[in-house]
Structures are given as C-alpha cells and as structure tokens.
Amino acid sequence: MSSSEPLPTLGTAGWILFPPVSNSALQRFAALARLEEQRLRRIQTPSAWLSDRRCMPYCFRCLVLNDADVSAPRWKREWLEPTVEFCTVHHTLLETVPASIFRLSGHFDAALRAISRYREMCKFKDIRRLR
C-alpha cells in the first residue's frame, strides 16, 4: 500500500481479523507475492465478519494437525465467522481463546505460543477445581 492509502483500523482481535484492502493494494500484493489476485481476494476476511470480539473460536486438533502440512499449524477461515460453534471435521464444540491474544501477538508463531500458555493455564485451573 502506498503512503497515501491508510491502513485499516484493527478491532479487538488485531491482525487475525484484517479488513479487506482496496483493489489497488490487492493488485500490488498479488504482484509482489506472484499470486493471482483472486486467490488473495478469497483469503481476505469478509466485511460482514468484522466485529469486535471477546474471544476467538478454534479447534485445537485442527490447529495443530494441518492435513496439508503437519509441520505447519493453520488458522481455518471458518473460525473467523462470528457464529461458528462446532468443528466441521471433528464434530465437537470449538474451544475459545481471548481475542486479545492476536492483538498482542506480532505474528502467528507468537499467537500459537500464547494459545498454548492459555490452554495450560485453563487446564491448571480445572485440575485445582477438582481438588
């Protein structure tokens, strides 16, 4: 994006819910990434899904067991949809993490570490409750 084109304002979930960019910016990104513009357009967060959120849903098994590349965790686009509740693969209720994890993490690896810490903290609280 050029300096004359301002970056969109991010919500409570930070970069994981990045608003769609202009057509001219999309064309430049496609040229830089050597990808088709349509492919980049398809991976943008739909405008209707952009809202401030307290938490973000996800399936931990799907997150860490990427069937396309087991060494690369992924965040599924369907988890960005505000009303999603169940994993379409495992047919289980989705877990949630605070949306602030993404706002406070500079990149996906940092978010993954924060998600792991959050899950451990939740497990520890559950164990203490059982005593």
Properties at a glance:
2 strands; 131 residues; 39% helix; two-stranded antiparallel sheet; mainly alpha; 6% strand; single chain
Structure description:
The chain is mainly alpha-helical. It has one domain. 39% of the residues lie in helices and 6% in strands. The protein has helices spanning 23-33, 37-43, 60-64, 100-104, 108-130, and strands at residues 55-58, 95-98. The chain has a two-stranded antiparallel ribbon. It is globular. The mean pLDDT is 88.
Percentage of residues assigned to helices? 25-40%
Low-confidence stretches: none
Helix-strand pattern: HHEHEHH
Number of domains: 1
Q: Largest beta sheet: what is the strand line-up?
A: 1-2
Instruction: Report the biggest beta sheet as strand number plus sense, adding barrel if it closes.
Output: 2 strands, antiparallel
* N/C terminus separation: 55 Å
The average pLDDT is 88
Secondary structure class reads mainly alpha
List the helices and strands and how they pair.
Blueprint (H helix, E strand, L loop, with lengths): L22 H11 L3 H7 L11 E4 L1 H5 L30 E4 L1 H5 L3 H23 L1
Antiparallel strand pairs: 1-2
Short synopsis of the structure:
The protein is mainly alpha-helical.
